[in-house]
Amino acid sequence: MTALRTREPLAGRLRWAVADAFAVAGRDLAHWRRQPAAVLVGALFPVLLLLMFTYLLGGGMAVPGGGDYRDFLVPGMLALAMVFGVEATMTAVVTDTARGITDRFRSLPMAPSAVVAGRCLADLASSAVGLAVLIVAALAIGWRPAGVAPALAAVGLLLLLRVAFLWIGVYLGLLARDPSMVVAVQVLVWPFAFLSNAFVAASAMPGWLSAVAEWNPVAGTVTAVRELFGSPVGTGGGWATEHAALLAVGWPLVLTVVFAALAVRRFQGLSR
Amino acid sequence: MAAVQMQGLVKRYGGRAVLDGVDLEVGRGSVCALLGPNGAGKTTAVRILATLVRSDGGRAEVAGIDVARDPRAVRRRIGLIGQQPAVDDVLGARENLVLFARLHHLGRRAAQARADELLAQVGLAGTGGQPVRTFSGGMRRRLDIAAGLVLAPEVLFLDEPTTGLDPAGRRDVWDAVRALVAGGTTVLLTTQYLEEAEQLADDVCVLDGGRVVARGTPRELTAAVGGDRLELVVADPARAREAAALAERVAGELPVLAPAGTGERVVVPVARRRGAVGAVVRALDEAGIAVDDLVLRPTTLDEAYLRITGADRARSEVPA
Q1: Is there a domain that residue A140 lies in?
Q2: A20 contacts on B by Cβ (under 8 Å)
Q3: For a FRET experiment, which of A123, A190, B125, B170 has its CA 20 to 30 Å from that of A215?
């Protein structure tokens, strides 16, 4: 019989909270090992979109202010890949909750925060991989970033956006309680994506639509990332476009704060 | 000292009391079955004891610790096996157990060693890296139980552990539970199956509408409802009703409202064992009703349970 005394916390609960979060995230990494195909398919979907828009639709696209549509599209696709991550997060959360795994975690002497924190770590890691795959694909079709340092900053902004959509996903996952609800989000994410400057410059849209697209929480990131990569930005646009860097940081932070608070409240509400 | 104790436990959802003042005590090392129909409050009671849900009133203690005051300490002493196997489908059995052991804060080595012990204990040692997805229902359930045993808990909660399992899987789970009890674990299980309570439990507590409507050993419950039943199979189903009436008049307790039974099978409560079979056979013979089979048997917990919950509903309809 193994000694079953739990080890004494070395630096208190915080240390265990971190260790538990990594243990929970490790479960997802073990999934990758077992189902590499599933990971690959997930990562290849944005690549497919990139190829479709570049080669099937790109011929009919003109970027206001000039520039190649492919170079205009790549940063947009990178940002959208972060947005699409909301589905994966929501699916994982709602499935675990519906199947009693969340409750099992909650009945263990682990840090309760690790249930959600582990999800965040795992999804951020998988999004980083997805981002890498998409960037390699973009490089393969001839897109080139302007420099390494600004490119890294761009990746940082993209992952920050992912954090925001991660928390949205956690919140929606806790809200849904039924895996079939994910479909609704999968559908709604499309108008959200198209109502941004990711595929088409906001200035090319009719008046009020262009304002909506400019203020879309993704738009700041898209524009800022275009600038950092040295890709065409598209001319025109109002205050929001001129202050893209501010919005690229501000929007994700606001979304994260709001949805993290909602998600934590919802998580605690599980014991009501 | 009791391993589990509830006093006046209350839980409301949207103004409706799911638990309406439940008292329960489970002795150390014993098995208690919470029995009741859907919506009786069984699962809610277990979820409160397992620190998943807070109560709205009353007190609950597990292993002498108040679940509301120190849930963390309670979690170190319990295992919870919920209504559906809460294990990762993609991973193998061992990977699952190592993960749960790590989350119990065992070190890497200890977690692996414990996982191997548990796999052997529930008879899954041979499954290797095979994903849980490919397991049978019974295997999955055993893995689920193993996951609840990482720290050799003092108290194990099983919420409808055999719902949806085939008979072989059910027997599997029963054997696992019996082995645990032999090792001194206290078990509180909820079930809708009387047979399960009869097979496993030292004590049965019948919940209905959030209240305890009966409690005792399975034997006490059946005894309280009363005596024995005469079960007979008539050759001609058309005469079943007649046979039932006759048997009741001769051997039955009064008053019996409607004799239970379907088709040619008739079940009659018997007031006194002695002489009942002979008297009924004689009466049927005189009436010319042919009988294929006739058994005098004790009342089952099933019948007692129906009587108990049915009677309680009838009583609660009388305005106080």
Answers
A1: yes
A2: 103
A3: A123
